[in-house]
Specification:
alpha+beta; 5 helices; 56% helix
């Protein structure tokens, strides 16, 4: 009887370990962490040497993976909401500059914006947006005027974009906005030369008249 009791106790202990591993496996699958899934498979195969300390390590690793997955989902949700809001305001995704921007970044612009685009990306710190040049303007005066006009125009759309994104559930914390001209506008690598235009160069003279 003592032997049977010992065997039953050992079997019960193994079953508890298997149940615990199954719980961890479900969490690792939900977190989409293939490495942890493999580690759990190995732990199950060597159940006899599995310690409580090793279980705690797996638990902690999965908690970290879950936190990363949750943050990624939050970014994806915010990114989709921002893109929908921008599209609703007439912006469309601009392609051809994928290697010039961050991996998760996007360029958007309206059909009337030939020289500039809005670059936006979402990370753990929030949503970042900036106006960039998509064409290279050799004339510094013309470039400055076009930059200021583009920033003024796009920043004017920002409140409506913000309202739409918030309506879709995106929660913004502190919002830092710069006035047009506060920061030099960056020209994207690979930008084509801008077509010559006299209007942009002449405007500063008209203002000073």
């Amino acid at each position: 009887r003592a032997e049977i009791s010992r065997i039953n106790k050992a079997a019960l202990g193994q079953q508890k370990l298997l149940d615990r591993l199954r719980e961890l496996e479900i969490r690792s699958i939900a977190a989409r962490d293939l490495r942890l899934e493999r580690e759990i498979v190995l732990a199950r195969a060597d159940l006899g040497s599995l310690s409580s300390g090793r279980l705690a390590e797996l638990d902690a690793a999965i908690s970290t993976a879950e936190a990363k997955r949750s943050a990624a989902q939050t970014r994806e949700t915010a990114r989709a909401a921002m893109l929908d809001a921008l599209r609703a305001e007439g912006y469309a995704v601009l392609t051809g500059f994928e290697t010039a921007i961050a991996h998760e970044g996007l360029l958007v612009r309206k059909p009337t914006d030939d020289y500039h685009a809005w670059q936006f990306e979402v990370d753990d710190e929030g949503v970042h947006m900036q106006v960039v040049r998509t064409q290279h303007e050799a004339n510094a005066n013309a470039a400055r005027v076009r930059d200021e006009e583009a920033e003024t125009r796009m920043c004017g759309d920002f409140p409506a974009v913000l309202e739409r994104a918030e309506g879709a559930g995106v929660k913004f914390g502190r919002i830092r906005r710069l006035a047009p001209g506060d920061v030099p506008v960056r020209t994207l690598p690979g930008a084509a030369p801008a077509a010559k235009s006299t209007s942009a160069v002449a405007r500063p003279k008209e203002r000073g008249a």
